[in-house]
């Protein structure tokens, strides 16, 4: 692997670790499944969220992590009918 790619991969891993810690600290009372990935300061969040306010909370928390330049929001808000299924 090229040395610059190794540095980038290591930086992405460190950033992803910070993002995951932030997501755990930002946990809401309701169980949710959020997956995060990092690439050059670009964070992608995906998964199911219980409601729009929880989604906003996660996006706000992750946006404050040093090194996050942009967030790709692929979070889906579960409909009430699906939550009871």
Would you mind describing this structure in some detail?
The protein has 85 residues and is α+β, with helices and mostly antiparallel strands. It has a single domain (3-80), classed as 2-Layer Sandwich (Histidine-containing Protein, Chain: A), CATH 3.30.1340. Helices cover 46% and strands 27% of the residues. A 3-stranded mixed beta sheet has the order 1-2-3. The longest helix has 23 residues, at 3-25. The model has no long low-confidence stretch (mean pLDDT 84).
Secondary structure elements and their pairing?
Blueprint (H helix, E strand, L loop, with lengths): L2 H23 L7 E7 L2 E8 L2 H12 L6 E8 L2 H4 L2
Parallel strand pairs: 2-3
Antiparallel strand pairs: 1-2
Task: Quickly describe the structure.
With 85 residues, this protein is an alpha+beta fold.
Task: Give the key terms.
elongated, Histidine-containing Protein, Chain: A, 27% strand, alpha+beta, 3-stranded mixed β-sheet
Q: Label the structural class.
A: alpha+beta
Uncertain runs are none
Shape: elongated
The total number of structural domains is: 1
* CATH-assigned fold name: Histidine-containing Protein, Chain: A
Mean pLDDT: 84
Strand order, main sheet: write it out: 1-2-3
Count of alpha and pi helical runs: 3
**Major sheet description:** 3 strands, mixed
Order of helices and strands: HEEHEH
CATH-level-2 architecture: 2-Layer Sandwich
- CATH class label: Alpha Beta
The helical percent reads 40-55%
Beta-strand percent range: 25-35%
Q: Tell how many strands the DSSP assignment holds.
A: 3
C-alpha-based Rg, rounded? 14 Å
């Amino acid at each position: 692997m090229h040395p610059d790619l190794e540095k980038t991969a290591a930086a992405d891993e460190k950033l992803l670790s910070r993002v995951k810690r932030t997501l755990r600290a930002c946990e809401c009372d309701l169980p949710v499944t959020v997956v995060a990935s990092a690439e050059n300061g670009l964070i992608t969040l995906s998964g199911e969220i219980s409601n729009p306010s929880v989604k906003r909370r996660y996006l706000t928390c992750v946006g404050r992590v040093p090194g996050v330049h942009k967030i790709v929001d692929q979070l889906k808000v579960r409909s009430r009918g699906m939550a009871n299924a």
